[in-house]
């Protein structure tokens, strides 16, 4: 089993901090228009992409022993562990949708279930499938799929979610994180998890590739204004998630991951870095509690729907500081968060760390 790369925990922690800020903004500014927030929407699309890519990396590391040894028994065991995680996250996510319509966990669960079938594919096939998934979304729009179907955009809600047709459409095509094209991030992670991240040449290559993708997509977004091309390429905005957004998010994700791995390596003994790495291991707990407790308390106090960005950002920062204090205490007594512990038990993973 490959040694744990703590830089991924650091990257996950930063992604979750950004997602908390964005989710507080979405909840408290939903009546002010979806473009309010001074760039937080852009950060949301990038942070969530990091989160899903890290899921793929985690699956790749989880199944590394089975893949390298070629044991059919170990491969079946790895698939069962991934499927159990998928069912757990899907069920938790569906319950969570009732209080947080922008939930990512039920998408996450379906992605993991699909990924369990692909754990031992060759890297070239994973990347080829990722490309197909990215292009399938604009192709669906070209065929006539209505991206606005089922949405009530002023409130960012999806009234048709609990119908079979609405749920399927939301899951695959026009939800907050539809499988087309978001599954491509997880496929990318499955491939990235097979690389030697401690090798400097790998880090440089990934960082240059990421920077090149970001520059290329930003240039195309500014200068490629022909309506026919724009209908296929889109913009770098995450909704709708057309190819320019996906490529830009992949580029920023690669840079994000490389920087996190470098910082974790150079400052491994720094208390702040160590604490953030532990926070990254509490990502699921933070994700659930910032809605249930953070936004739940604000709703009880009547502070939601206030259309105030300073209040939203300030509230998020206060909650993050409180959760940070909890994580300091938690680190002294436990290795895994409570939700993470449940996930590992369900998956049948017994190793610690």
Structural account:
By secondary structure, the protein is mostly helical. The protein has one domain. Helices cover about 70% and strands about 0% of the residues. It is built from 15 helices and no strands. It is globular and about 50 Å long.
Q: SSE layout and pairings?
A:
Layout: H1 6-28, H2 40-62, H3 64-69, H4 72-97, H5 105-115, H6 123-142, H7 164-174, H8 179-192, H9 200-223, H10 227-233, H11 243-266, H12 271-280, H13 283-300, H14 309-333, H15 338-347
Helix pairs in contact: 1-2, 1-11, 1-12, 1-13, 1-14, 2-8, 2-11, 4-5, 4-15, 5-8, 6-8, 9-11, 13-14
Q: What is the compact description of this entry?
A:
The protein is mainly α and 353 residues long.
Keywords:
mainly alpha, 71% helix
Q: Which structural class do the helices and strands define?
A: mainly alpha
Please summarize the sheet with the most strands.
none
Span between termini:
13 Å
- Cα-based radius of gyration, to the nearest Å: 20 Å
Q: Can you give the helix content as a percent range?
A: over 70%
Helix run count: 15
Strand content: under 5%
What is the domain total for the residues? Answer: 1
**What global shape is seen?**
globular
Poorly predicted parts = 32-38
Number of strands: 0
What's the SSE pattern?
HHHHHHHHHHHHHHH
> Whole-number average pLDDT?
88
């Amino acid at each position: 089993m490959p040694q744990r790369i703590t830089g991924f925990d650091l990257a996950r922690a930063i992604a979750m901090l950004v997602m908390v800020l964005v989710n507080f903004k979405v909840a408290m500014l939903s009546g002010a228009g979806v473009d309010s927030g001074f760039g937080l929407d852009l950060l949301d699309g990038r942070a969530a992409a990091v989160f899903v890519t890290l899921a793929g990396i985690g699956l790749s590391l989880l199944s590394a022993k089975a893949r390298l040894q070629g044991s059919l028994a170990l491969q079946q065991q790895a698939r069962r562990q991934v499927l159990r995680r998928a069912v757990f996250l899907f069920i938790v996510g569906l319950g969570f949708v009732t209080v947080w319509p922008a939930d990512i966990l039920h998408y996450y669960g379906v992605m993991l279930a699909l990924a369990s079938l692909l754990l031992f594919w060759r890297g070239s096939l994973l990347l080829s499938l990722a490309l197909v998934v990215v292009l399938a979304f604009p192709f669906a729009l070209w065929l006539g799929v209505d991206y606005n179907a089922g949405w009530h955009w002023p409130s960012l809600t999806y009234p048709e979610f609990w119908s079979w047709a609405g749920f399927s459409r939301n899951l695959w095509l026009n939800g907050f994180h539809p499988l087309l094209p978001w599954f491509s991030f997880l496929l990318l992670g499955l491939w990235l998890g097979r690389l030697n991240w401690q090798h400097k040449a790998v880090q440089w290559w990934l960082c240059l590739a990421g920077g090149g993708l970001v520059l290329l997509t930003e240039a195309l977004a500014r200068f490629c204004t022909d309506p026919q091309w724009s209908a296929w390429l889109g913009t770098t905005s995450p909704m709708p998630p057309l190819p320019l957004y996906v490529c830009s998010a992949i580029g920023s994700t690669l840079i994000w991951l490389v920087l996190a791995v470098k910082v974790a390596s150079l400052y491994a003994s720094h208390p702040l870095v160590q604490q953030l790495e532990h926070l990254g291991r509490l990502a699921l707990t933070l994700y659930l509690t910032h809605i249930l407790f953070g936004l739940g308390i604000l709703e009880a106090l009547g502070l939601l729907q206030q259309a105030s960005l300073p209040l939203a950002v300030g509230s998020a920062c206060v909650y993050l500081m409180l959760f940070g204090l909890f994580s300091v205490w938690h680190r002294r007594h436990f290795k895994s968060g409570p939700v993470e512990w449940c996930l590992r038990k369900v998956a049948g993973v017994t190793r610690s760390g």
